[in-house]
Amino acid sequence: MSRIGRARDLIHPRALGAIALAAVAPLVAACALDDEAGGPGTRPDSAARATNGGQFEFSAVVPGVYHARGVGDLVAGSNAAVIVNEHDVLLVDSHISPAAASALLEELATLSDRPVRFVANTHWHFDHVHGNQVYPPEVEIIGHEATRAVIAAGGSNSGRSYESFIGVLPDRIARLEATLDTVSDDSVRAALRRTLDSQRAFHAQVREVVPTPPNTTLSERLTLFRGEREIRFLFFGRGHTEGDVVVHLPRERVLITGDLITAGIPYMGDGFVDEWIETLEHLKSLDFEWIVPGHGMPFRDRERIGHLQDYLRDLWNQTVAFHERGLPAEEAARRVDMRSHADHFDVREPGVPLLTVTRIYELLDGAAG
Question: pTM to 2 decimals?
Fold first, then answer.
């Protein structure tokens, strides 16, 4: 483990000092780890704040609550939310690597000098939890019981989803190396070299990950009171994963959703698509003005919950029909047609990701983990 991973004295944002962070290119677009979907009118009213040459942009959603978005060369993976309380700070989601988590902590000094005492994991996917290890034991990492169980069992750095997004890095690097040997144009070689170097750096960063599960869990509900602020952690059922937690600030009317609802179409490779529809219904009963998603910009449009429900319902019904006809998942993935939802999502042609249909087939066959 590197000195970043060993930073057990890390409580205060200034405690890290200067950290040399290697330049890393974003993951390929197919990973959809930090999309910019959301459309016009989704950025918070206040101006974005970015550290000079830093890795993150902080946008104030409401006073004391910030959306942290990766804008530098370092792969962040997902958004984070920053809640600055009277005497401390709570972060929602810890990013894709110790390096990304450490960079966020370093740059938090531009917002507040209060110590980070709490971290929340909205679910167990690697791009939201693989920064957990940088926090010392006295920092409470809060998550659902199922999230702790999956991470503790090694599920956040193994399995189909992880291999599809992170496990492919060695092959990608090998292809870049082979391509570099065939190129003679200096400018093209320089561009390829930069990409190769960045992918090597990112691969090195993810190899430093020691999966660290939450040390505080909930089954349905947990509430923190920090000064005058009430912070609710709520589980309404399975959806994007088996342990999706949303963070609700009732007084500030902010809902932080992880990937249960995002600015675009969420990844579904580990989802419970039929149950997801009902889980989203519970969000409608909460009082909020802003949704801060795990990917994409914050938005105010509550109707997006219904749009996603409609998408999921249609996706489920079409896939069930193909499954009943005995079509292989590969063919069904090509034939599912979601273009009727193009007014609300970026759908331009027939077809959905194979991982989505594979997961639904597993659910229908009773083979889902």
Answer: 0.85
